[in-house]
Write a structure and sequence with these properties.
Elements: H1 3-24, H2 29-34, H3 36-46, E1 61-64, H4 70-80, H5 119-133, E2 140-145, H6 152-163, E3 169-175, E4 178-179, E5 182-183, H7 184-187, H8 193-199, E6 203-207, H9 213-225, E7 231-236, H10 259-277
Parallel strand pairs: 1-2, 2-3, 3-7, 6-7
Antiparallel strand pairs: 4-5
Helix pairs in contact: 1-3, 1-4, 1-10, 3-4, 3-9, 5-6
Organism: Alkalispirochaeta americana
Family: Belongs to the transketolase family.
Keywords: Thiamine pyrophosphate
Length: about 280
């Protein structure tokens, strides 16, 4: 793993998120920013993918079950070469291929349409089962929000995945502690998350800092060694990570920055970029 390379790319992904949401005057920056490191690691380090052949039947699959974090996925796909980075400025606009939630019919690199919380996880489980039935070796990764796991469908999918021993499935929970209506523990606490997944037959990995590439790398190495059961990685992250005034603020779940806030966010990212270039 080239940590500095990943850090530089993560900064570019954050820039893409802010630029897209600002241009659209709508979107979900908070949960997109908290997920940047896992997006970056998966697409630039972990997954077997080819932007030149996005429908390769042997590719690894990724499902953004928390589909409102689409700006983060789009910024990652653009920087990975699936479509021009300039397209990010068309987010949510009429006629764009970058809709408010991921659409498999419109966007290169999107493996499943998502947005109705809980359903993406079920689709990922189906993909993993299909690989087993067809004797394929591809992996399936699914990113869930910690608020999303309040949905009952999530646990139906988890029960099925554990029962079928889908060891080609890696589930990642973005545990940033905030959701649209408030703090996770105030709305409907799902804790202890790891024990719940264990009860359904998952191998569980907990990260104290899910925005740290070293910890993500360690978790993915552990996940690769697990046989006979699916894996869940529960990552403690910071909502709005990387933008000082957005961090750990509920208000930035689904709010676009105004002109002044946009300028401040880009300034902060530029400063980070300069520091990384000195590394």
């Amino acid at each position: 793993m080239n940590k500095l390379r990943l850090q530089k790319m993560a900064n570019e992904v954050r820039r893409g998120i802010i630029a897209g949401v600002y241009a659209a005057k709508a979107g979900h920056p908070g949960g997109s920013l908290s997920s940047v490191e896992i997006f970056t690691y998966l697409y630039f380090e972990e997954m077997n993918i080819d932007p030149e052949n996005p429908k390769d039947p042997n590719r690894d699959r990724f499902v953004l079950s928390k589909g409102h974090a689409a700006p983060g996925l789009y910024a990652t796909l653009a920087n990975r070469g699936y479509f021009p980075v300039e397209d990010l400025l068309t987010l949510r606009q009429s006629g764009t291929h970058l809709q408010g939630h991921p659409s498999i019919a419109h966007t290169p690199g999107v493996d499943m349409s998502s947005g109705s919380l809980g359903q993406g996880f079920s689709a990922a489980v189906g993909m993993a089962l299909a690989a087993k039935l067809k004797n394929k070796i591809y992996m399936v990764y699914a990113l869930l929000g910690d608020g999303e796991i309040q949905e009952g469908q999530v646990w139906e999918a988890a029960m099925f995945a554990g029962h079928k021993k889908l060891d080609n499935l890696v589930v990642i929970v973005d545990n940033n502690g905030l959701q649209i209506d408030g703090r996770l523990t105030d709305v409907c606490s799902p804790y202890p998350i790891d024990e719940k997944f264990k009860a359904f037959g998952f191998h569980t990995i907990c990260l104290e800092d899910g925005n740290d590439f070293d910890q993500i790398n360690y978790a993915m190495q552990e996940a690769r060694e697990v046989k006979g059961m699916p894996v869940v990685i529960i990552m403690r992250t910071i909502k709005g990570k990387g933008i000082s005034f957005m961090q750990d603020q509920i208000s930035w779940h689904g709010t676009a920055p105004d002109d002044k806030q946009y300028a401040q966010a880009i300034k902060e990212l530029d400063e980070v970029g300069k520091i990384l270039c000195q590394g």
